[in-house]
Specification:
With about 425 residues, the chain is α/β, with parallel strands linked by helices. The chain contains seven helices and 19 strands. A nine-stranded mixed β-sheet has the order 1-19-18-17-16-3-4-5-8, covered by helices on one side. The protein is globular.
Length: about 425
C-alpha cells in the first residue's frame, strides 16, 4: 500500500438514492449493436426508433451520451482486504433499511450494473436463488445493465436459435422487473461447446442428441433477441456507457492453449479454433490505449489470478494482464471459478524506451462465477476476499470511485463484502 492510500473498515454505509438514471441502459457498443434502452415490463419489447418521437429522442440521447471509441486496459490501485467469516456474513446488511440497503444507487452514481457468471443450469444448483437475490438487489441499485462473464448455458452452449434452454436458463429465470435491462455477455468454454471433463474418463458427452449441432454462433446471433430483447452476447467488444466509464469485453477461451487437444475446440462450428487469440488481445490493447475514460474495466471468462479450483489461467494472464495495466485498467472481472473473490497485484512496468526506472501499478481482480453451482473450495493463496457460495457482484461507478459489492444467497443472504476504489490520492473502504 502506498502512503497515499487511506483504509477504513466499516460495517455499513448509508447512501442516497437517485430519482433518475444518468445512463440510458448502457449506450454504444463497438461491435455494432444498437444503443441499449432502459428497463421495461416483462413480456414487452423496448421501443424502437420507429415507435415515434419518444423512441427517437431516447436513441438521440443515447447516441449523444457516448462516444463509441476503441477500448483499453488500465492502472489499478489495490486496497488491503480480508476474507469474510460465517459470523460476519449478512450481519451488517439488515441495519439501515433492509437487506439490500447498501446497494442503493446514490445521486452521484453515473452507472450501476451487476456481474454474474457460470449460471445457465435451467434454474438448478441455486441459479433461481441467485436470480431472485439479483432482482431484490436490483430494485434498489437500479442497474443499467447486467454483465455475464461467460458459461451462460450448460452444457456446451445452445444447439439452435430455438433451443429451449435459452428460455429455461435465461428468460424464465431472470424474470424480476429490475432485471429487464440489457445483458452484455461474453462466452465461456462451455458456450464454445465444452460439455465437461472427467479426470478418470476424459471428455464428457453432451447430455442431448441435439447438442451435436451446438455452436457459439447461436448465442452471438442478433436474431436471438426476437426471443428476449435483453440478450447481447459478443466475442470481444467495448461499451462506453458514461463519460467516465469504459468497459472492455474480451474473448478468453481461444487464449487457453490446453483446450487445443479437446474435441470440441476444433469440431464445433465457428468455435474456438476459428478465432485468432493474438489479434483479439492486441485489439483490446489498442482500444484501451485509445480511451480517455477515467475508469476502464475489463471483463472476460477466465481468471488471470485466482485462489479457486482452476487457479491462475497462465495463458490468459500472459496475454492480458500487462496489456491491461499499460492501458490504464482499474479492474478485471471474470468467472470460470465457481466462487467470488477479490485479489490484487502490483504489476511491474518497464521504463519507456529504456529511459528512467521501472514502476509498478496495481490491478484489481474480481471473480464473480457463483451464479449457480459452487462448492469447489479454495487453495492457499492469500486473497482480499473469497466466498465459496452462490451469489453475484454489483458495481456502481461515480466520478470519484468504483464500488464493488459481493452478495450471497441462502442462509447468509445479503452483503458479504464491499470495496471502494479511488484513483490517487486513493482511498478505499472495506466491509465484510
Amino acid at each position: 500500500m502506498t502512503s497515499a492510500e487511506q483504509i477504513s473498515v466499516t460495517t455499513d454505509e448509508a447512501e442516497n438514492d437517485a430519482s433518475t438514471s444518468s445512463v440510458l441502459g448502457g449506450c454504444c457498443r463497438s461491435d455494432g449493436l444498437a444503443p441499449t434502452l432502459p428497463a421495461y415490463k416483462i413480456g414487452t419489447q423496448p421501443p424502437t426508433v420507429a415507435a415515434g418521437r419518444v423512441g427517437l429522442r431516447r436513441a438521440a440521447l443515447a447516441a449523444a451520451a457516448c462516444a463509441c471509441v476503441a477500448v483499453g486496459f488500465g492502472l489499478a490501485w489495490v486496497v488491503p482486504g480480508r476474507r469474510s467469516t460465517p459470523g460476519e456474513r449478512g450481519a451488517a446488511t439488515n441495519a439501515g433499511g433492509g437487506l439490500y440497503a447498501a446497494a442503493a444507487r446514490a445521486s452521484e452514481d453515473q452507472l450501476s450494473f451487476m456481474v454474474v457468471g457460470d449460471w445457465g443450469r435451467r434454474g438448478a444448483f441455486n441459479q433461481t436463488a441467485v436470480a431472485r437475490a439479483m432482482g431484490a438487489c436490483g430494485a434498489v441499485s437500479r442497474p443499467d445493465f447486467v454483465v455475464s462473464v461467460g458459461d451462460n448455458f450448460y452444457e456446451g452452449g445452445l444447439n439452435s436459435l430455438d433451443d429451449p434452454e435459452f428460455a429455461q436458463s435465461f428468460t424464465d429465470v431472470y424474470a424480476h422487473p429490475s432485471l429487464q435491462v440489457p445483458w452484455h455477455a461474453v462466452l465461456g468454454n462451455h458456450d464454445y461447446g465444452d460439455c465437461g471433463y472427467d479426470d478418470a474418463k476424459g471428455e464428457v458427452a453432451c447430455p442431448l442428441a441435439a447438442d451435436a449441432a451446438r455452436s457459439p454462433r447461436f448465442q452471438l446471433d442478433p436474431s436471438l433477441r426476437r426471443r428476449d430483447w435483453r440478450w447481447r452476447a459478443g466475442r470481444s467488444f467495448d461499451l462506453r456507457p458514461s463519460t467516465d466509464a469504459h468497459l472492455f469485453f474480451v474473448d478468453t477461451t481461444p487464449l487457453v492453449t490446453s483446450y487445443a487437444d479437446k474435441t470440441w475446440f476444433a469440431s464445433v462450428p465457428e468455435g474456438a479454433a476459428t478465432q485468432n487469440a493474438a489479434v483479439g488481445a492486441h485489439k483490446m490493447g489498442e482500444a484501451l490505449n485509445a480511451s480517455d475514460a477515467k475508469w476502464k474495466l475489463v471483463f472476460g471468462h477466465h481468471p488471470m489470478r485466482s485462489n479457486g479450483f482452476w487457479s491462475d489461467v497462465q495463458d490468459v494472464r500472459d496475454a492480458l494482464e500487462l496489456t491491461a495495466v499499460r492501458g490504464g485498467a482499474t479492474a478485471y472481472f471474470n468467472g470460470h471459478d465457481h466462487d467470488m473473490q477479490h485479489t490484487s497485484v502490483d504489476v511491474e512496468l518497464e521504463p519507456k524506451r529504456g529511459v528512467g526506472s521501472s514502476s509498478t501499478q496495481r490491478l484489481h481482480h474480481f471473480t464473480s462465477g457463483a451464479g449457480s453451482k459452487t462448492g469447489r473450495g479454495f487453495g492457499v493463496v492469500e486473497t482480499l476476499f473469497e466466498h465459496d457460495g452462490a451469489g453475484f457482484a454489483s458495481v456502481r461507478v461515480s466520478r470519484g470511485s468504483v464500488r464493488v459489492q459481493f452478495w450471497g444467497v441462502g442462509a447468509g443472504e445479503g452483503l458479504l463484502y464491499t470495496v471502494s476504489i479511488d484513483k490517487p490520492p486513493s482511498s478505499a473502504s472495506l466491509s465484510g
